[in-house]
Amino acid sequence: MGLLLSKLEVSGSNSGFSETTYLTAINQLDIRGTIGTKMLPPKTEYAAYLAFKFVNGCSNNVPSAKSIIRFVNYESEIDAENQANTVHLPRLQESGGIPKMRGDGCMEVKLGYFDSKKDTDGPIEARLFEKNHFYKIGLIVEGVEFRPK
């Protein structure tokens, strides 16, 4: 899995992810996770999840963002952005249980679904983005996971 992060500062973590990112203070968020279709069994439905935490004492100033799942070789970034879904990232106590708490201490939110097709080749991208230009502080991105649905 490749994790593409822009304008973020990389730090270490004891989670199961190879890359962890701590969002210090930025005004645009764009997180991309990719996986090659050759790594996935064909004809299987998958979901992509963003695993994250909030720094203690930081309020969540990223209440919602947009998410997309796209086959990179078959769908343009602009077309995918035009069909993006809204994802909510509130703290658990403020949201009645959404996003879901994981066993490793992270929270996760579903970015979307896709089917691995027998005749599809190339990367699949799961993306979370937010472009409202308000500063975002205190989000720790653990990674993007692709799991069978």
Outline the structure in words:
The protein has 149 residues and is mainly β. It has one domain: Jelly Rolls (Sandwich), CATH 2.60.120. It has 2 helices and 11 strands. The N terminus is likely disordered. InterPro entries: PP2-like (IPR025886).
Termini distance?
18 Å
Q: What is the CATH topology?
A: Jelly Rolls
Strand order of the largest sheet: 2-3-11-5-9-8
> Going by CATH, what is the homologous superfamily?
Galactose-binding domain-like
| % residues in beta strands | over 45%
Low-confidence stretches: 1-15, 92-97
Instruction: Give the fraction of residues assigned to helices.
Output: under 10%
Task: Quickly give the CATH architecture.
Answer: Sandwich
What is the 3D form? globular
Please outline the helices and strands.
Blueprint: E1 2-5, E2 9-11, E3 20-23, E4 29-36, E5 44-54, E6 64-71, H1 77-82, E7 85-88, H2 92-95, E8 100-101, E9 107-116, E10 123-130, E11 139-148
Antiparallel strand pairs: 1-4, 2-3, 3-11, 4-10, 5-9, 5-11, 6-7, 6-10, 8-9
Pfam families: PP2 (PF14299)
InterPro entries: PP2-like
Features:
Jelly Rolls; mainly beta; 11 strands; 149 residues; six-stranded antiparallel β-sheet; disordered N terminus; globular; 2 helices
Brief rundown of the structure:
With 149 residues, this protein is mainly beta. The chain has helices spanning 77-82, 92-95; strands at 2-5, 9-11, 20-23, 29-36, 44-54, 64-71, 85-88, 100-101, 107-116, 123-130, 139-148.
